[in-house]
Design brief:
The chain has 144 residues and is of the alpha+beta class. It has four helices and eight strands. The strands form two sheets. The chain has a six-stranded antiparallel beta sheet.
Length: 144
């Protein structure tokens, strides 16, 4: 069978061989473990998506858990928000995109990620198609 593959490779002009993937690191029992998966688990960063599903601000983590993190008030061009923790608020936004950008900046600037993770799930939002709402992605450092 390998002779057939070599002949076919010569016929197609694909003489160059591809390098093998690195074997990974070996665990005590002799099996190899991929390094890529292990590096992702120790990353201090997590990606979250913040949705403006009026009048709520929702946060979805990498596991799909949806949390109600605050409220949006007013109408464009005078939008404001109030987050459920840390007494964070903002006023005077012309669009939802600007409001979401400010919310993501506030979350990145303060060490409140663990507080958001302690909030209860938004069970009322399980059947809602959130990807049709305006959203922004934010990466936050995991504390402790």
């Amino acid at each position: 069978m390998s002779a057939l593959w070599r002949w076919l490779a010569r016929l197609l002009g694909a003489n160059k061989r591809q390098p093998f993937a690195s074997p990974g690191e070996f665990v005590a029992d002799g099996r190899s473990r991929s390094r890529l998966g292990a590096d992702a688990l120790v990353s201090p960063w997590r990606i979250y998506r913040i949705y403006a599903h009026l009048p709520h601000l929702l946060l979805r983590n990498e596991k799909g858990k949806v949390i109600d993190i605050g409220l949006v008030q007013g109408e464009a061009p005078d939008l404001s928000y109030q987050l459920n923790i840390a007494n964070i608020s903002g006023k005077g936004f012309e669009t939802l995109a600007l409001l979401l950008d400010d919310v993501s900046g506030q979350m990145g600037n303060t060490q409140i990620e663990s507080e958001f993770l302690r909030l209860t799930d938004g069970d009322t939002f399980k059947g809602v198609d959130l990807d049709r709402a305006e959203y922004i992605d934010v990466s936050l450092a995991v504390d402790g």
